[in-house]
Amino acid sequence: MEHPTSADEGRAEDFLRILDVLFMQALSGAGDSRDMLQAALDAGMRIVDGHRGFVAMVNYQTGELRVACISGEGWDERCRPLRLHLGQETDRGITGHVALEGRPYVCGDVDNDPYYLRYHDDVRSEIAVPILGPQGQTRGVITIDSLRPNAFDAEDCAHLAAIAHTAAVGLALDGFRARESALIEIGRSLSATLDTDAICQSVVLIAEKVLRYDNCSVFLADEMSQELVLRATCCAADEHAIVTRYAMGEGLTGWVAAHGAPVRLENPTQDPRWKRALANVPESEVGPFLAVPIISRDRVLGVIRVMRRKSHTPWYNNRFTESDERVLSIIASQVGAAVENARSFDRLLRAERMAAWGELSAKSAHMIGNRVFALKGHANELRHVIDSAPHMPQCDEIRQLLAGMEDGLQQLDELLREFRDFVVATQVTLAPGDVAAILKETIAETFPRRSPVKLRTEIAEGLPSVRCDARRLKRAFAELIENALSFQPEGGRLDITCRLATEEEKAEARLATARGYVRIVFQDEGPGVPPEIRDRIFQPFFTSRVRGMGLGLSIVKGIVEAHHGIIREVGRPGEGARFVIDLPVDDSAPASRA
Amino acid sequence: MPRLLVVDDEDDVRAALQRRLEREGFDVATAASAEEARQRIQEQQPSFDVVVTDMSMEQTDSGLQVLQNAMAHDIFTEVLVLTAYGNVANAVESMRRGAFDYLEKNAPGVDVYELLVMKVHQALERRRSAVSAIRRMEAFAALRS
To answer: Domain A431-592 adopts which CATH fold?
Structure first.
């Protein structure tokens, strides 16, 4: 072993000083990465006494090495913009070789080197060290050459490697800083939007800044059916025909939603849960997969999914990292909050609109009611006049016309009643009651004795009491029975069941699992409700019937919600309509523990 | 001939009620507001036998005001209140304050006019027997002294 000379010591001190400065620059993040790389290159040139040098950075999108910084003389238009493709078999140069190997390389005699690629005539030695990323992948290469043969020794190699490490740290820090500011931007833009579609769209755009992907899709769970529906997507130009809906639990995406846990796979097509996601991409092209659930208040609201095409360069593993998963999860939690916010706002708007509807209905119904009352008075007088002159000519004709008018007034009264029910639907006085008994009474009062529709009931005994307004609840049940009857005029079936909701059913309906719910189901064999209008049928004035104003289902919804319950239509296509009402059990009464 | 007062802010409702009640043989006066009703009640000598009033006019409980004015003027005036849909609270309150009865104007399937006429007859009957009981007491007191 050689004894260190004072020259060596001087060199060592020099090196440490240079390294220190470089580290501080990398840490502080002052200037951009290019400045830092330039500083590293300049430091390297000084330490190893090089003649010419450059830093080349890897572009993983294209698989190319490109010159980022230069030092020394002799750079001209010809070699400055050099590009090496790492996929190519030959003419990679020492730089390319080092990029692939991920290890430093020293060459004392370039003329006899298997890898060297000549750009300058005067070069005799070359040294190249890789700049590695946190996962050990090559991010760039520092290459320095010399006019002297065997100019670089092992110590030079170690020093240059150390400099490369500081550059690596600087790059990594820059990457984290970029992520941080993108996340801050996400937070800001998400909290400013109340439109769920806009929220999903910004996720896709911002995710691009923190993650490299070939496809990013955001799915939100439909509030009624709990299906996952695609709300925003960004993909390369040829990837249309993306699957737009998943049932809960279907495919990897559905699995993530059903389990509320992320999935990160290098080879998703090998996984038993895999289901075709992109119709235009053959399965052989499908690469790394990462999906995280969007969660808010312990409920899964949707899924954010990113995918990459398979990497065909064996030296480059383009899998998603744990850090990628963390970042996407943070984004997802912010999206969850934003979507929840937007939905609360929507609910508030809807509630205000319903209140306005209510007020409008109340006022118009009042005015119309007075008109109808007066008209009935006139009709009465007319009838009186006719009856006191039975031999008047055209008496019968007049009687007929009068009967027609009275019928019209009767219908007006019915419409007014519908209006009134709509207005008072949410005015309930709750008291402990027996839902099963109320249901049985309603069926007895509403279902006709003879009907082409077959009735089947399964009403449990001994159900816990529910805080309810018996009159209103009857009105709600009656409406659903009448609905089933009117949509099956030629005959059919109506199954009515009433029992406690099971734990599974509560979970699937996103109900609070800590309390009991009485579930009443109305299933018929009629035409059913097409999925595209499913969320509109409960809005006022939506009707596919000829009679009535279409307030019926909105009245039912108003009543159910005034009972703090929920109502959904979940019929399968071709199997008729299926209305499910869940009413919370009264947990203030001691005997209501189920 | 019994004297009636019909109070309603809607012209055609007032006209319809007046016509039906006049056909029944009553002497019918009208008022279009609680305030106008108050004046008519004050001026009317002898006082009205029955007052038929809408509940909701300038205010949702204008009918209660009419009731109060009528009974303040003559305790034996019978008051019938007409209510609109679902306004049960005010109807119940009017009963508590001494109204004879209330009817819902748009009760489906019911001929409210015929029902009203029937109620007016009943109210008149009650007023007659109340007044005659007072007369007998006055006569009795006169005899005693």
So the answer is: Heat Shock Protein 90 (3.30.565)
Instruction: pLDDT band for A104, please (50, 70, 90 cuts).
Output: very high
Does residue A412 surpass a pLDDT of 90? no
CB contact (8 A) between residue B16 and residue A374: yes
For testing the chain A interface, which of B105, B112, B115, B117 should be mutated: the one with the most A CBs within 10 Å?
B105
> How far is the C-alpha of A16 from the C-alpha of A477, rounded, in Å?
84
Check if A6-178 and A193-339 are the same fold: yes
Which tokens in the block code for residue B72? Answer: 């303040």
User: Which CATH class name applies to A6-178?
Assistant: alpha beta
Beta-carbon contacts of A511 under 8 Å, excluding residues fewer than 6 positions away, are A501, A517, A566, A582
The fold of the A352-424 domain, in CATH, is: Helix Hairpins (1.10.287)
CATH number at residue B126: 3.40.50.2300
Residue A209 contacts residue A178 (beta carbons within 8 Å)? yes
- What's the mean per-residue pLDDT of chain A? 84
Enter the ipTM.
Answer: 0.87
Chain A contact probe: residue of B17, B58, B85, B116 with most A CBs at under 10 A: B85
Higher pLDDT, B25 or A1: B25
Q: Interior CA angle at A157 toward A152 and A163, to 5°?
A: 125
> How many separate domains does chain B show?
1
Query: How many C-beta neighbours within 10 Å does residue A500 have?
Result: 17
Whole-number Å distance between alpha carbons of A390 and A398: 11
Instruction: Give the predicted TM-score (pTM) of the model.
Output: 0.56
Domain that holds residue B12: 3-144
- Chain A residues close to B56, C-beta within 8 Å: 366
Which sequence spans correspond to the domains of chain A? 6-178, 193-339, 352-424, 431-592
Mean pLDDT of A489-497: 92
> Which residues in chain B are contacts of A384 at CB distance < 8 A?
23
- pLDDT tens, position by position, A311-347: 766 666 788 889 889 989 988 998 998 888 888 888 7
A181 vs B: CB within 8 A: no
Convert the pLDDT of each residue in A344-356 to its tens digit: 888 788 778 877 8
* Class of CATH domain A193-339: alpha beta
